[in-house]
Amino acid sequence: MKRIGVLTSGGDAPGMNAAVRAVVRKAIYQGVEVYGIYQGYQGLITGQIEKMEVGSVGDIIHRGGTMLRSARCQEFVTKEGQLKGIQQLKALGIEGLIVIGGDGSYRGAKALTELGFPCIGVPGTIDNDIPGTDFTIGFDTALNTVIDAIDKIRDTASSHERTFVVEVMGRNAGDLALWAGLSGGAETILIPEDPFDMDSIKDRLLKGHERGKRHSIIIVAEGVMSGNEFAKKLEEETQFDTRVSVLGHMQRGGSPTAVDRMLASRLGARAVELLIEGKGGRTVGIEKNQLVDYDISEALAMPHQLDLDIYRLSKELSI
Ligand code: ADP
């Protein structure tokens, strides 16, 4: 393989730039030309494609977002859209594509591979909900952003003896809520994977109050319900003075942590190796700190597993 492409797609995540940098530099190091495709699959269809040099990815390793920009593209879900994309790549002599994104982006990469164009999926999303890897690029940075917010909320919560409901991202996966809740010392964590029981939440809040706790922090993953909705329910059933913080898109931004930069660099470089080895249609990931790869269809069929040990521990430590 002498010429490859790289794009970022779907929801952006801090560390995507570090992954693009790794792809570009590793490819050039191996004597392979690299093309950057702007605006994800949208730019693939319309041909927003530029040759990348070593310097094209200079000064981006510490930046959030993605220099290649991202997009959602309905047209690409159709076979016609996918064939247009392949045409654009072939016109430039590009023989393989690295897709950095979430599971929707993986489905696009799978579709291209099935049409005979080899792709590699690199997991980039703050949700940590991609199968075939313990961690996704962006999760650690988002986690640190949420913890920073929780720490600040805790200061004001304890000054005013309030219960704070903090809504974090996570439509289908509770990883961010769980990890942030455990490491931020939250009293209660609500995740989409486990239906909550209002009576036991009330019980826990009252017990805490009785033993003199001056504040409580409840983390709600957006996939459970909105923070405002939950606070309303809680206020209907208790006398606690409740406030809500919706962290929103700030969770997607910021300079990537060292952990995310390392992960992005390792996964990006491994994706290039796989293409060079002629192994298209795979995803890269990390398991027990070792790089792994899976067939993209198999990876997409694997359910994302919440770490149940961590979930149990979060309950034990928030008594
Ligand atoms: P993420 O990659 O973060 O999960 P999306 O689910 O929005 O984000 O997917 C990103 C893009 O991937 C979509 O806008 C679409 O262009 C493409 N995509 C999603 N699902 C499919 C599919 N089943 N087949 C082909 N392309 C898809």
From TrEMBL:
Q: Which residues are involved in binding ADP?
A: 21-25, 154, 185-187, 211, 213-215
So where's the catalytic machinery, residue-wise?
Answer: 127
User: Per the annotation, which location comes first and is thus the protein's main one?
Assistant: cytoplasm
Q: What is its EC number?
A: 2.7.1.11
The UniProt activity regulation field reads:
Allosterically activated by ADP and other diphosphonucleosides, and allosterically inhibited by phosphoenolpyruvate.
What cofactors does the UniProt entry give for this protein? Mg(2+)
- EC class (word): transferase
Q: Which residues bind Mg(2+)?
A: 103
Q: What is this enzyme's catalytic activity, as reactions?
A: beta-D-fructose 6-phosphate + ATP = beta-D-fructose 1,6-bisphosphate + ADP + H(+)
Summarize where ATP binds, as residue positions. 11, 72-73, 102-105
Q: Which SUPFAM superfamilies match?
A: Phosphofructokinase
Q: Where is the Phosphofructokinase domain?
A: 3-275
**Cellular localisation:** Cytoplasm
- Protein's pathway: Carbohydrate degradation; glycolysis; D-glyceraldehyde 3-phosphate and glycerone phosphate from D-glucose: step 3/4
What is this protein's function per UniProt?
A: Catalyzes the phosphorylation of D-fructose 6-phosphate to fructose 1,6-bisphosphate by ATP, the first committing step of glycolysis.
Protein family: Belongs to the phosphofructokinase type A (PFKA) family. ATP-dependent PFK group I subfamily. Prokaryotic clade 'B1' sub-subfamily.
HAMAP family this protein is in? Phosphofructokinase_I_B1
Name under which the protein is recorded: ATP-dependent 6-phosphofructokinase
Query: What organism does the UniProt record list as the source?
Result: Bacillus kandeliae
Primary gene name: pfkA
